[in-house]
Design a protein that fits this description.
This protein is an alpha+beta fold. Helices cover 30% and strands 15% of the residues.
């Protein structure tokens, strides 16, 4: 998630062009934003603490679309983003989607909920500033 041309810049979400494990660009989506955000955060923490940056595993279980309040589809997909036979349709899929949207709204209005506790210490300071170590 670190810019190749500007190593001090980290990017995540819709703003990045990055290739996934399957050799294809990550789709612009909430899931990609979450994964790339976590990876950028780990890379920054690794850089500030001098620790190794773990890879965030990409996992896209399905595509979910609501069609109004009463219809929708939750289509499960494989690692190649190909549809699997399994899906949830109709009102149930629309209800699940409505729950996800409600949850997104809640988390957006409670941005500090679930913030992680500090687990790593900053690397020893050099010239009065935190040491910078490539992630
Ligand atoms: C109508 C719509 C429906 C969608 N439905 C789905 C869906 O069902 N499933 C799905 O997976 N994806 C969906 N997406 C795509 C999904 O919303 C995006 O992929 C995801 O939000 C990208 O996250 P992000 O954090 O990169 O960017 P954003 O969520 O766009 O966050 C960027 C933030 O940066 C802020 N910002 C911009 N400029 C500045 C600045 N100069 N200074 C400070 N802050 C700034 C913005 O206000 C915004 O809050 C949908 C998108 C749209 C528009």
């Amino acid at each position: 998630m670190r810019s190749l041309s500007h190593p001090n810049v980290y990017a995540a979400g819709d703003s990045v062009y990055t290739i996934g494990d399957n050799g294809r660009p990550l789709p612009m989506s909430c899931a990609s934003a979450g994964f790339t955000g976590m990876q950028a955060m780990k890379a920054i923490v690794g850089s500030l603490t001098g620790s190794k940056t773990a890879n965030v595993k990409l996992s896209y279980p399905g595509n979910h679309i609501s069609l109004g309040r009463r219809d929708g589809i939750l289509q499960m997909v494989d690692q190649e983003a190909q549809a699997k036979p399994k899906y949830v349709g109709g009102r149930k899929a629309a209800r699940i989607k409505a729950g996800i949207v409600r949850m997104s709204l809640w988390t957006t209005s409670h941005p500090t909920f679930g913030l992680p506790k500090r687990k790593h210490h900053l690397a020893a300071a050099q010239n009065g500033a935190a040491a910078r170590v490539a992630a």
